[in-house]
Known about the structure:
The complex is a heterodimer. By secondary structure, chain A is of the alpha/beta class. Chain A has helices at residues 2-25, 39-43, 56-61, 75-85, 103-113, 126-134, and strands at residues 36-37, 48-52, 68-69, 91-95, 120-123. Chain A folds into two domains: 1-30; 32-134, 3-Layer(aba) Sandwich (Oxidized Rhodanese, domain 1). Chain A has a five-stranded parallel β-sheet. The termini of chain A are far apart. By secondary structure, chain B is mainly β. Chain B contains one helix and 17 strands. Chain B has one helix at residues 2-15; strands at residues 20-22, 26-31, 38-46, 54-59, 64-68, 78-85, 92-102, 109-118, 122-125, 128-131, 140-146, 152-158, 164-172, 176-183, 188-198, 201-202, 206-212. Chain A binds chain B through residues 3-4, 7, 55, 72-76, 79-80, 83-84, 87-88, 96, 100-103, 106, 109-110, 113-117, and chain B through 2, 6, 60-63, 86, 88-92, 94-97, 125-128, 130, 132, 189, 191, 207, 209, 211, 213.
Amino acid sequence: MKIVLRQASAILAIALLPALVTGLWHPRRPAWQSDEVTLAAASAWQNVLWVDARPDADFARAHIPGAVSLNEDRWDELLPGLLDHWDTTRKIIVYCSSLSCQTSHDVARRLREEVNLPNVFVLQGGWEAWLKRNHPS
Amino acid sequence: MPTRLFLLFLLLPAFARADLQWSATTVFTAAAPSEGPATAQFTFTNTGAYPIKITGTRTSCGCTAAVAQSGPVAPGQTGKIDVSFKTLNRHGLYEEPIGIETNDPKAREATLTLRVLVQEAIEVLPTLLFWQPGEPLTPKVIRITVTDGFDVKSIDATCPNPGLQLQLDTIKPGADYKLTVTPKSQRVKATISVTPDIDGKPSRVISAHVRVS
């Protein structure tokens, strides 16, 4: 038993060093603070502006009530529409299709970095999460 | 005996190596929207004893397309996957995962990453100037920076809305510019068009928005 524990400790110790190096210096290390928000947490927020980052056809089919469309294929055309609905008191939550899509993170990044908007978040699980909660089948 | 087992445990992953070896699982490319889609190629070698076939590819959005070489790749031969990424209207660094399915029994799935840096000839920051209700209408500044590698001769900034006063200053010719924007009234909604002149020809217009409410 002692041997097993000693060897398990040795493996952990060997793994710790590269893990620390990766966590501190790797260019693609995971972020300590995420910009994602769960639907449960978002539901408690007041004055939210939902931003739908999916393609036009998906938005036309269905979207979160009150959401405005902002996808990157038509960024220049759609951004003014979003700004018409935005004010400094509103939190923005961007969503795309599902957990695996990256588009909502890209749109959120651009709203923060290019447009300089504060309080921009990404809905964890996206449209699928919203559907699951509001239309469970 | 326990020491031998411990060593065997550490060496196990080496024996489980897939037959399909990628030359790189992450490829970086840079592109300008004016140049059309960004393209990249992932190559692999079949190091096993049997032919391997790419049976499917998956991308996370309609902006990325991945096309695998058709047909099986014989042992010792190389294959490729061509990837393209839409750059129009996009800006910044994108990381697109590409899922690969194969008939390699040792690794049925793999994930490749395409990193694309999309850069316009100029960077305009921020693209929104906002004055809150009751805020004094003091001037605010938009910085215009020429991206490395672009030969920008001059910059033009225009706005059809008479409710704005624009002043464009050159900080460093061909590199840095400052656009000072002053609203003339308490309600203004306008778009400023910033156009770089590259080699005597106007390039793609970048929009900046102004809201005074």
